Amino acid sequence: MTIRRMKTYTGSQGYVYQYYFVGKRPLAGTKRDDAIREYVFDVTADRKSMFAVSVLLSESALRAWAAEHGRQLTEAEEYGAVKMRLFRGFDEIEHMREHGRSLVLDLAALRQLLTALGVD
Questions:
Q1: Fewest Cβ atoms closer than 10 Å to its Cβ: which of 16, 57, 75, 104?
Q2: What pTM, to 2 d.p., does this model score?
Q3: Distance (Å, rounded) from C-alpha 105 to C-alpha 117?
């Protein structure tokens, strides 16, 4: 049995979220030339009911970032960008359960979040 560490984040909407990382997997049904990695988090805003939130990161965005910077992201850097996208969702989406179950991390957001993290 895996014990997951519950973490807390207070969003700018006033909600206090608790979440933990479930895992990552290739998103089923995507094209091989632009596969998507799905990072899954279990989230609660009321400590009673959990719901899954997916952050979707395309291989093409990762390849484009690598071409611009002359190197690939490390797993830790990639996860850092994904987690920052989750936090942005917490900050921007008032009702995550209804409207924020699938968050896209495109190239523009990847660049912006990695710059904020100090990753070159």
A1: 75
A2: 0.92
A3: 15
Query: Could you tell me the two tokens for 31?
Result: 């094209």
CB-based contacts of 73, cutoff 8 Å, min separation 6: 62, 65, 66, 81, 114, 119
DSSP states along 57-90: EEHHHHHHHHHHHTSPPPHHHHHHHHHHHHHHHH
CA 12 – CA 89 distance, rounded (Å):
10
The string of pLDDT tens digits covering residues 33-57 is 678 999 999 999 998 999 999 999 9
Which comes out higher in pLDDT, residue 23 or 120? 23
User: According to the model, what pLDDT value does residue 94 have?
Assistant: 87
Cβ proximity of 62 and 79 under 8 Å: no
